[in-house]
Protein: UDP-N-acetylmuramoylalanine--D-glutamate ligase
Organism: Mucilaginibacter litoreus
Amino acid sequence: MGTNNKIAILGAGESGVGAAYLAQQQGYDVFVSDFGPIADHYKQQLQDWNIRFEENGHTEAEILNAAEVVKSPGIPDKAPMIKSLLEKGIPVISEIEFAGRYTDAKMICITGSNGKTTTTSLTYHILKNAGLNAGLAGNIGKSFAYQVATERFDWYVLEISSFMLDNMYRFKADVAVLLNITPDHLDRYDYKMENYAASKFRITQNQTAADYFIYCADDAETLKVLEGKQMAAQQLPFSIEKQIETGAYLDQDKLIINVNKQHFTMSINELALQGKHNIYNSMASGIVAKVLELRNETIRESMGNFRNIEHRLESVGKVSGISFINDSKATNVNSTWYALESMTTDVVLILGGVDKGNDYGMLKDLVKQKVKAIVCLGKDNKRIHDAFEDDVEVIVNTGSAQEAAQVAYHLAEKGDTVLLSPACASFDLFKNYEDRGRQFKAAVREL
């Protein structure tokens, strides 16, 4: 730790507060600083633990006096405070990097532009069903650092975003999963796809020949990076387009996994998660399970009885024969593409919110095939109108989840699906995508 044992934590959300607790437990002099207000329950925790903190601004002298800084994933490297720290040569790391030092548990790390929460949850579900002593953390659930401080797990299943990876240096994944790379958050990567792809591939850094790298062999961006890359880890691809010797593939409607002479097969019709994108997610989780040499019976049972996470293609129920689906977690165009691709009925699509420079072009074909009306849910819907006015007869603007649900209900007919899959962030009308999803579900229940 050296003579300077001061550590500053920037951001007092789930990851920051968890990191503060672990740092205090490890004997650091901890100071937490948040540029905005701190939520009451996190403030209460910091007070209960006697950890110094500030909100609504940074005291530069205090932070620049730290030996190391743990920053929340949401803070960009372009933030003035981060620039000052880097200029002074003070290391800035992620919560995952920090917490990883204090556990010898094995790490299963899952990243990708889409599907990572579902795949992480499914993988954790399989491990728990197999009786493994496993924790679930990262971008999901309780803070990794807090669990390292308070639990003793043998395994962690971590959902890792590119923002977390950017500040991870020595941390190593024993099993790394990269689901796909599609344009997202490009504003954080100088609008260069190669920068974003390089960030995703940091999931493989520090891996050795004893480790595993699981990836999608149908993903063009992943293959592009792999072409020029030396990998120490054992590579296990998965594909629904071609046969794979070691990894996973689809043979008609059979999902087949071959790993380390371990063989697994299951009909895709028996999977709890349906739709093409979910076959990929199930393949990735299945390969992890076979790497761990879990029993086929356990894997098959787990993949068959898994319940998807809230706000990700979540069935809200039927009203007058119309199905309502909450996919509020779809905050980018690609996620909405996956949602539409899995629909088997006519759709009334609820779109909109804070547009991150979206290219709606990739949705056009699916919208023409499946969408009978679009209900906009956002303050500025001009780009949605411009993108789809030639493809859909009805495009309506609404200003609340309740109004959107009511309008969509009246536009739909028996047998149709009303799909909330916004392709946008939620901050114009809601606190976050969870708030948007919950308000939508409440509105459906009132119909």
